[in-house]
Amino acid sequence: MTLLELVIASSMMAVLLTAVTLVLRTSRQAWEAHEGDYIRLEGLHATLRHMVRQVRQANAVTAISAAGDNSGALTLAMPDGSTVAWDHDGPTSTVKCGVTTADQLLSTNITGLNIVGYKPDGVTTTTVPSEIQSLRVSVTVQLPRETNATRTYSSWAWIRSW
Fold it and tell me: How many independent structural domains does the chain possess?
């Protein structure tokens, strides 16, 4: 092998290595972006499922935030006599829950939690706990991959023991 062949082979290897490095870096950036969205959407789903499951088991609503409050709170009386509470903390974008008080972290990166109580007709909203037959829980997250991209998922739940 001559020196010229060695220089050409080395140059080709450098170009190939540079191309592979760019492809790997781009793939990793895309993977990290999708993972960020996925983590936030999983937190959204987990929060919504947790709240709706508990609402369906509850005896009654004992406290609820205003329908227009995007940083909502909810307290339920459970069949075993305990009280379960949820509260969204706007500045930290977290949802906390717990027995008696909302002091345990449930989910992070939640930018909005809206809880609306409905009378038995399913149309009229109310914040009077004794009049609430069903709830609509809406959870919002901000996706990091896109500018100002938000996702809001909602679910309805009936109070079984109403």
Answer: 1
